[in-house]
């Protein structure tokens, strides 16, 4: 069985930043161990390059010098089509986006297709602060994107849903053949826990936040919550891991830290490797998420695999990933002060981390998820048999 997977993947030697990129990277590795021959096509890359490693071939396609959406449906789409025609796969597995196939001929669309839906498009595609062309056109791009993506879904034979939240937003997708399969977590998060804060009242507590520093990740809310926590009498630090993709927003965050006098309480770590993130999780007391939009964040699964409870809004895919009292709490109180009290209670009385680890590592085991994905491929291949 030859699978062509189209999705994001780090370049050789590059850090696998971003949840979808890490999920694809781990799934590819474990599918190859499961006897799947897989060719990875990576559109939107910084360079054009072909490499072969122990898991198979990877073909990187350089991002064309066009606006993202236009290049996505035209130049990149036709480059992918040319490669697919040459490779003649048994199944095409589309990761995160399937608009690439919008202009493909029907002869290619008859190839069995599997689609893993990772994200829910937001009505604002830009994260930049301020009034600019990207933010002005976000509503138009959002609606155009959804129309074309909806049209192309009819060509997909099997849908892999990483969270039930997808069907909350797109209930019509339930009519398609679908499977609930979690994203696989990198093996590095399954290592033995080497160091863990004990959570007693005399020590300093550590909150961890992981993600791009931009408006959507809403670090400003995290900083304000930290300020409220300190007012309760707790000694707390906030550690933020991620690249400042929006320098203007990053400066707003730093200005707020300075204005609140939290320079010694907020640490910006920048980009870290998965292993370094895992180490930071082992030294933290809870993971904090305050995003304005998420689907099913990889970092929640990774944190749970390290025994780290998660504090987040009762929204999006988090409401399916977090069970209050067992592996986290929800920021659903009426004020920051009340949410700070809920957070303080979790820090002082953390959940049973051994049980948390056991449950998470069963749910996000990459070998199990690769096996379940292969079964979806086998089901998709039946469409080819029926249609031939």
Structure description:
There is one protein chain. By secondary structure, the chain is of the alpha/beta class. It has 2 domains: 201 residues, Glycogen Phosphorylase B (Rossmann fold); 176 residues, 3-Layer(aba) Sandwich (Rossmann fold), CATH 3.40.50.2000. The protein is 40% helix and 18% strand. It contains 15 helices and 14 strands. An 8-stranded mixed beta sheet has the order 3-4-2-1-5-6-7-8, with helices on both faces. Strands 11-10-9-12-13-14 form a 6-stranded parallel beta sheet, with helices on both faces. Strand 9, helix 8 and strand 10 form a beta-alpha-beta unit. Helix 1 crosses helix 15. The longest helix has 22 residues. The two termini are 17 Å apart. About 4% of the residues have low confidence.
CATH architecture of the largest domain: 3-Layer(aba) Sandwich
The first-level CATH class name of the largest domain: Alpha Beta
* CATH homology group of the largest domain: Glycogen Phosphorylase B
Major beta sheet, specifics? Answer: 8 strands, mixed
Placed side by side, the strands forming the largest sheet appear as 3-4-2-1-5-6-7-8
Give the total of beta strands. Answer: 14
Could you say which structural class the secondary elements and strand pairing correspond to? alpha/beta
Mean pLDDT: 88
Q: Using the CA coordinates, give the radius of gyration.
A: 22 Å
The CATH topology of the largest domain: Rossmann fold
Globular, elongated, flat, extended or rod-shaped: what is the shape?
A: globular
Order of helices and strands: EHEEEHHEHEHHEHEEHEHEHEHEHEHHH
Q: Alpha-carbon distance between the termini?
A: 17 Å
Q: Summarize the amount of helix as a percent range.
A: 40-55%
Count of helix runs: 15
Percent in strands? 15-25%
What is the number of independent domains? 2
Extract low-pLDDT stretches: 123-131, 197-201
């Amino acid at each position: 069985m030859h699978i062509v997977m189209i999705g994001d993947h780090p370049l050789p030697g590059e850090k696998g930043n971003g949840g979808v990129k890490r999920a694809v990277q781990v799934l590819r590795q474990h599918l190859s161990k499961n006897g799947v021959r897989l060719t990875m096509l990576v559109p939107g890359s910084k360079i054009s390059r072909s490499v072969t490693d122990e898991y198979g071939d990877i073909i990187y396609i350089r991002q064309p010098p066009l606006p993202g959406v236009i290049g996505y449906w035209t130049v990149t789409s036709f480059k992918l089509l040319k490669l697919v025609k040459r490779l003649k796969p048994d199944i095409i597995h589309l990761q995160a986006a399937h608009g690439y196939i919008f202009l493909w001929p029907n002869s290619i669309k008859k190839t069995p297709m599997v689609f893993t839906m990772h994200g829910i498009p937001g009505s604002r595609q830009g994260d930049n602060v301020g009034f600019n062309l990207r933010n002005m056109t976000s509503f138009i791009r959002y609606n155009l994107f959804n129309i074309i993506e909806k049209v192309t879904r009819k060509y997909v034979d099997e849908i892999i849903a990483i969270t039930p939240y997808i069907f909350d937003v797109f209930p019509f997708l339930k009519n398609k053949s679908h499977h609930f399969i979690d994203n696989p977590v990198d093996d590095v998060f399954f290592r033995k826990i080497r160091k863990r804060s004990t959570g007693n009242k005399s020590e300093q507590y550590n909150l961890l936040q992981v993600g791009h520093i931009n408006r959507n990740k809403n670090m400003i809310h995290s900083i304000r919550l930290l300020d409220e926590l300190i007012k309760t009498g707790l000694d707390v630090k906030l550690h933020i891991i991620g690249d400042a993709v929006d320098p203007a927003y990053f400066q707003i965050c730093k200005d707020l830290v300075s204005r609140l006098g939290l320079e010694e309480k907020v640490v910006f770590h920048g980009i870290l490797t998965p292993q370094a993130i895992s180490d930071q999780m082992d030294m933290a007391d809870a993971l904090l998420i305050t995003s304005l939009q998420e689907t099913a964040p990889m970092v929640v699964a990774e944190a749970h695999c390290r025994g780290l409870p998660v504090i987040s809004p009762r929204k999006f895919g988090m409401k399916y990933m977090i069970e209050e009292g067992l592996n986290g709490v929800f920021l659903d109180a009426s004020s920051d002060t009340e949410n700070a009290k809920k957070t303080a209670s979790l820090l002082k009385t953390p959940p049973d981390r051994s049980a948390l680890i056991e449950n998470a590592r069963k749910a996000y085991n990459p070998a199990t998820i690769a096996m379940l994905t292969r079964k979806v491929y086998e089901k998709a291949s039946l469409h080819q048999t029926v249609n031939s």
